[in-house]
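Contributing new records

If you add data, match the layout below exactly. Sequence lines come first and carry their own label; structure lines follow with theirs. Keep one chain per record. Anything else will be rejected by the validation script.
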Amino acid sequence: MQIRNIGVVSPGDMGQAVAMRLKVCGFGVHTVLDGRSPRTRELAAKAGLADCGSMDKLISTCDMILSILNPGAAVDKAREVAAAMRTTGKKTIFVDCNAVAPQTVREIDAIIREAGGTFIDAGIVGSPPRGGARTRIYASGPEAEVLLRIKDENLDFRIAGERIGDASAIKMCYAAYTKGAVALGVETLMAARKLGVDQALDAEMQESLADVRKWILSRSTAMPPKAHRWVPEMLEIAKTFEGVGMTPRMLQGAADMFGFIAQTPLGRESPEQAREKARGGSEIVRLLADGKQQA
């Protein structure tokens, strides 16, 4: 199958960045904006994405669909795509790039294949591919190597194997640390401030845990606007761990922490607004701990 047109649902912070790199590669890149927020519409317009107007039209137009959205919506989006495949009779390639458990991605695989489509499991690791950032995309499944046809210096596709679920498993284990540790680190620093020992703890960390301190603070700067998406991601990791006989509770706690942050003024900002403010990690912790409305 030749791949000329690719659909991206949805062009949010990560989806828009990936879509822009696909356009650089020469692909026609499309989306569906019906029911989407003004922010998503603006991001799609800035990326120059073609709005197909409906999922049926998107499926009819595209050879491949990349699903990049809130992991809590991944299964419903797969069902929507499968329904459009049945309606249109077009059998396309569906790549689930969401942060979901292997159990969830196997459910999505069944939904797509029952509709006659081709399914690829994918997991995105790293920042959005902007400003020279190189984003790793792990892929698995019998047809995963089709993604290697996408040649771009900012998109690093890596084949994880032929088993559906392996790419998602890599993503789950990686994010358990990179995001789970951020939840614990930020909560620790917030607690120290509320207890009135933040300056003493900061001095101790600079002396004995300088690298850890730097890592937590650097990871905190872009986190609040994404916290609402990280809640279902932490729950998917908990589901992953529980599925292999390990405790889900640490990641369930991380989900609680991100749920709290998502409800704060910082959590309600868009990623674009947060980048414009350019707050440092220490300021993020202070504002969250003190419950301040503005920087």
